[in-house]
Amino acid sequence: MTQPSSSIGRPRTPAPGKAAPELRIARLHAHARRLLWSALVLIAVAGATGYFYDNLPAPYENWMLLTAAGAAVLLLVVVPFLVWLSHTWTITTRRVIERSGPFGANHREISHVRGYAIQMRRGILQRLWGAGTLTLSNGVEPPLRLKNIPNAVLVHETLIDQVEVNQILAHRDSQAFGSGSIGL
Questions:
Q1: Do residues 141 and 178 both lie within one domain?
Q2: Are residues 113 and 44 in the same domain?
Q3: How many CB atoms lie within 10 A of CB 30?
Q4: Residue 4 falls inside a structural domain
Q5: What pTM, to 2 d.p., does this model score?
Q6: DSSP state letter for 33
Q7: 126 and 149 share a domain?
Q8: Tell me, what's the pLDDT at 172?
Q9: Is residue 10 part of a domain?
């Protein structure tokens, strides 16, 4: 069985019975608009530090200003950024993987082959920014929520496509193995 090759579109499907390589389709973080307040704090701290440096009243010194500015940046900018950066969703050709926590301590995944229901919820601000929340539920495990992801409609369509392709391949493989043993 040969298939047309093209430079765009889906990759070639493997021959029946042959394992398909797992390819990464997308790696997602929550929408970055969550970091807006951190960016505003960083700008305000930089402006205030620049203004008050060498202009402080007598009992205060510049090292106190720099220490306070560093603590504010660390707590209000760096920590929220690291929290945002440490939560990822990876969509592959076989599954959806959620990793969160420092160094990916919490790990969950859901397989496309088993199939799952996809529910998309978008609030007014999420629609404005093109974001949304997708809930993947297979009825057995707790639902997997992809909260506030960018390009939610595109991700939704991609997940539907992957579930369909994986179920077609699983059905084709089961038919290829089942019909070969019956005919002998």
A1: yes
A2: no
A3: 20
A4: no
A5: 0.76
A6: G
A7: yes
A8: 79
A9: no
Asked, for residue 16, whether it belongs to a domain, the answer is no
168 and 101 assigned to the same domain: yes
Handedness of CA 89, 92, 96, 98 (dihedral sign): negative
Q: Does residue 5 sit within a domain?
A: no
Mean pLDDT by 10 residues, the chain (184 residues): 52 67 90 92 96 87 93 96 93 92 84 90 92 93 93 93 86 67 46
Q: Alpha carbon of 117 to those of 24, 56, 71, 97, 112: distances in Å?
A: 21, 60, 45, 16, 11
176 lies in the same domain as 132: yes
**Which neighbouring-strand residues pair with 149?**
132
Nearest to 115 by CA among 97, 89, 94, 99: 94
Shared domain for 75 and 96, answered yes or no, is no
Q: CA torsion angle for 119, 130, 158, 120 (degrees, to 10)?
A: 0
Amino acid at 131: A
Nearest CA-CA partner of 96 in 30, 162, 165, 20: 162
